[in-house]
Model the fold of this input.
Amino acid sequence: MQNPSATTSLDHDYSGRVLGGYRLISRLGSGGMADVYVAEQASLHRRVAVKVLRPTTLAHPEAVDRFTQEARAAAALVHGNIVQIHEVGFIDGVHFLVEEFVAGPSLRAWLKERGPLSPAAVLSVLVQVAAALDQAAAGGVVHRDIKPENLLVTPRGEVKVADFGLARVLHENLELTQTGIALGTPLYMSPEQTRGEAVDIRSDLYSLGATAYHLAAGQPPFRGTTGVAVALAHAKEPVPPLATVQPAFAGAVGELIERLLAKAPADRFQAPADLLAAIDGLPTGLTSSSRTAALPLAWNPEHEFGRSFSFDRLAAVPLAGFRGSATAARPVAAVDAATARLKVALDREEIDRLVSRRVWAVTAALAAFGLGAGFLLGRLRAFQGRRGGSSRPVSRPQSGPAS
Done:
């Protein structure tokens, strides 16, 4: 069997390769554990997303096993607000995951392009993600990594939660975490998760609250120069009142978010259904836009913002199939042109993550150097003090006749 690490190098683009019944069309970007491709499924003539595991993941067999187990558990979650997993496969030394293709940006990209969300839009996110978490809770699945990057928005304004259950592969593998793969997560991590304690659905609700805070305020509730500093803030520091950062959230919506961010799990909503019930109990003027009217996050693929992210036009492009034909090159060229702008946006997200990781790494290294230098300097001074003391003449009492 081939060496998996040799067949899944980040330097190699698998565009055009066939994995089982899927033809990888174009690589969109890379996440913590996989390269992501837009692909075509021949049997159903549809677009799908294919995640090919990276060498850093394949180097740890236990992580690959857990990846498969978690993917199978997440595949059982069928809900309109959950990115559906279609298949987990292993072909020719390549481990891959096939899932629903979402034609739209993440909420992280949305924030960068359009800025903070209105109260109605934040409520819409809360309702949809809570509905997804409610389905997960019924299946005994905890996401563990709710954050803007994992929330995707369709042109209709539907929010879909990606990577359900797969974060466990990263967080429970110490060496993978030490390489910096999960460094972005502390921005939204629950206090109990930062302490390495067992987590349940209430941890996901905390992360949803931290995400909603970021969407509302334009900044996460806690920031710091290192992941450890952010994690400690989540565990110990009070949350800055949202209304002081964004006055539009003074009132019921801000109070919902702050309750989600309670330090103790017992002080939060105990289940996603409780959060949904609380939203249903809000005044009609707040909830009508998020529950019954057109979704606030709907966007037009033909406008400038939409053209940066939309793949809807790809539906009109005929699938190439897997056998040689006169039109075989046509779809690939059309897809490459259509995906170019989205790939730029995804690359920007990856660059931001890399810069953040390097800043934290450099800060940690400088802190360690400072501590080490201080320790050595202290030892040196103590040593010099001892040497100086031992070089002084010692006065001894002179002996003489006893009086």
In short: The longest strand covers residues 22-30. Strands lie at 18-19, 22-30, 34-41, 46-53, 85-91, 94-100, 151-153, 159-161. The radius of gyration is 27 Å. Residues 1-103+312-374 form a domain with the Phosphorylase Kinase; domain 1 fold (CATH 3.30.200.20).
